[in-house]
Amino acid sequence: ALLYDLRPGGGNSANGMCEYTAPGPLKGRLLIAYFSGGRCVQTFAFDKAGAVADERPLVGPDGRVLRFNQPLDVCAHPATGRVYLAVFG
Predict the structure, then answer these.
(1) Which residues contact 27 (CB under 8 A, 6 or more apart)?
(2) Is there a contact between 31 and 43 (Cβ–Cβ < 8 Å)?
């Protein structure tokens, strides 16, 4: 498919996104900040054809979904892997 519906996993307002390039379990995944709906950061993995192969929310060390106060943008430091969010609220 040419388009992928981002709404079911995160919400109606997908704003900032970045590719996670640091070593670790998120390497190569696309991170998308959702302002409304889930108010989370969804992570996406792709297959060799470019289709979404896996979608899941960003979770904390305890395995629980991390929720934020109206996240607008997300970026990740390429060397340390730290994830930074810009939030509206």
Answers:
(1) 20, 21
(2) yes
Residues constituting the chain: 89
Rounded to 10 degrees, the C-alpha dihedral 65/68/70/73 comes to -90
Angle at 32 between CA 31 and CA 34, to 5 degrees: 145
Report the DSSP beta bridge partners of residue 74. 85
Helix (H, G, I), strand (E, B) or coil at 7: helix
pLDDT tens digits, 53-80? 999 999 999 999 999 988 999 999 999 9
pLDDT at 3 over 70: no
Residue at token pair 């395995």: 63
pTM of the predicted structure, to 2 decimals: 0.85
